[in-house]
Amino acid sequence: MCQLIKIVFRNIIKNFKQSVLNIVSLTLGIAAILYIFTYIFHQSGFDRFHTKSERIYRCVADVKFGNTVEKLTNSQIPLAETALNDLPEVEAATRLFYDEKVNLEIENKCFYENIFWYAEGNFFQIFDFNLLSGDKNTVLTEPNTIILTENYSKQLFGIENPIGKIIKVKELQNSFRVTGILENIPANSHLQFKFLASFKSIPNERLKRMSDWGNFASLYTYLLLNENTNISSFKKKYNDFPNDYVNGMLKNLNLSLAQFARDGNYFDHRLQPLNEIYLDPVFSDQIHKYGNKQHLVILAIIALFILIIACLNFINLSTAFSSLRAKEIGIKKVIGSSKNKLIVQILSETFLQCSIALISALVILFFGLSVLNQFTDIDIEYQYFYNTYSILTILLIPVVITAMAGIYPAIIISKFNPVVSLKGNLLNRGAKLYMRNGLVAFQFIVFIVLVCSTILVKKQLLFLRSQNPGFNKENVLIVKNSRQLKDKRLIFKDELLKSPDVLSASYTSALPSMFDDASNMFQVPNSNEKVILNRIFVDEDFEKTLKIEIAEGSFFTEERGNENNNALVNRKAAEMLGWRDIQDKVIYDFNYRKQYNIIGIVEDFNIKSFKEEILPFIIRKEAQHDYLAVRIQPQSAVSVVKLIEEKWKQFNMKSVLDYEFLDRSFDNQYKAEVRLGKMVGLFSFISILIACFGLFGLVSFIANRKVKEIGIRKVNGAKVSEILTMLNKDFIKWVVIAFVIAAPIAYYAMNKWLENFAYKTTLSWWIFALAGVLALGIALLTVSFQSWKAATRNPVEALRYE
């Protein structure tokens, strides 16, 4: 073994140029693969730390009613208890309820929170969040109790023990006693909360109001199934069981379940495995963070291609330079080395190079992780490399690459004829040459596809950002916690309007990119058709603050007096209802049991991103003030922010002002696509870098093999340009072939990706042309550098000993 290691090291040093090229290209490939797969393992490993994760399911529903198709995570309040009583396969059921936009008050301090969570007493029977202080069986069983995460406890109380302390929440008109401390929630949990209040803290009368089967409350329902449950048969059983209860809901709409289904509607309850929640972002009402399964698949394919490119590079260089080892192999065969011994030696050399490359890749990741994270806009922490899958990947990489990249060269080299080998005359001709060029072509196929993808992602993002959203998002500041102003909101708004830098201001329940999918069921009188419209509550200044356009009629005004019975719809809703004008148009709201007069139609504007179709919605004037939108003078952002902060403190607001600019919030909807574009671009660069190392080594080898031929041609009058053409033409031919193959593959892949967008850019011809020119240019530069050195060498040096 020691002798083998010595030989392996000696051969690596002896073939130093080839070894360096191999190790550098493998290092880049392995670093990219580890980075991608660590990210994928983290993203796909959400919620698996719960010991019962395979048996936990969330109750969700697919609903089609009239014009609307929705996938809902929110469920009905009676569902958990009904499932537990009616389905023997259910071992336990628990619910998480949430309120929005509240202030937690401790003495003279106030802490604003977007979400206030309630959990049932059996929450820890199902989920394995670690409780540092308190009894998990009792911490949430009493009304008006709350548990805090470790970090949030420090934020509220510092180093003081919070157990028994009281937290007031004015919005809920309630106080909560701290009964426990939770370990900070793991990053790979779809549920992210700072605290949990007991479910029993919700007033009974409030629960009763929401307990109808037709009411999808702000509630998640989770079921824990028995260990011996047959999942496939239980899912079918579960899908059918709520129908009897849905019948009661439909009675309120004067519908039977049969009639409901006959009209093409459906109401499908189904179960969603806990481990799939994070990567299933199709639900319209979810408030937790989520990932993108399609993006992970794209990255996994890229990682696979980088691995293949790195291995092909190794194979190409090893087989090309194998003829330089002909005498060594011939001598070893003559003195009795068997074929198997030679294969073991060559595989050992490959394994050692892979191991060196792996260590180098880990060093790069260790010192460059923060730079990579900053560039790709993702947050991979060092601890992610310590999970089982990442460690297994690290250990398997040298083995897998040795098998993929080392076996073929080992077999080829071990087959050398000793007589021919000792003459040192081994040449690479015929099938081997075609195979080598084919491997080069494959590397450029991958590169061209990746470059096309990078360009298209950038082009699509530019397209989305350049579209007219139907409102003016520039110079609009949003106060996100304006609900805290309560009865002071009108005075606060008037104070801001006194500034010449503030052009207008409007209170609203929703804004573009800040929309919670709130919707109601409506019906036009004397019509049997029922429709679902999204709703927005605004004041009379909404139109001029967002600069939306009125297609017909007018917006709300103070001059008209009471506007509570009036409403506007957008053009999409008007078209859906078959309205050409607003004359004598009224609509009935089933949720509020009230009829509204339609006074106007607004032009469509995107309340969500351009990834989705325009929503049909109704606008009503209500005293809702979730957000305050403030239109300001250009270049006045700093002074207006300062003004709002001063006024906020002046109104004795204890919590910190929470604000954001509308244009940034709207653009942040494309954050995942920006991240994907950066990652594809980075790995395109790495793939071409690896290919260039291989090409560089290959051209260097060919030029050295043809040094005498080049010398003779130069002596006979050949020009440098003719020598360059001779050395370059084969490589250029294979790059062109690569382009012909890559273009349709890229076209198909990019078309599939664009299907995710309601509004999409065109697949322009220049995307493919630019990718082809880039590939050709890079290949020419790489090849020509070595070719030029060979072509300008003095022919006397090549022919001196002939």
UniProtKB/TrEMBL annotation:
It comes from the Bacteria. It holds the Pfam family FtsX. It is a multi-pass membrane protein. Keywords: Cell membrane, Membrane, Transmembrane, Transmembrane helix. The chain crosses the membrane at residues 20-41, 296-321, 342-369, 389-413, 434-457, 679-703, 731-750, 762-783. InterPro entries: ABC3_permease_C, MacB_PCD, Macrolide_Exporter_MacB. Residues 301-418, 682-795 form the ABC3 transporter permease C-terminal domain. Its main location: membrane. GO terms for cellular component: plasma membrane. GO terms for molecular function: transmembrane transporter activity. It is found in: Cell membrane. Residues 19-235, 510-635 form the MacB-like periplasmic core domain. This is ABC transporter permease. It comes from Mariniphaga sediminis.
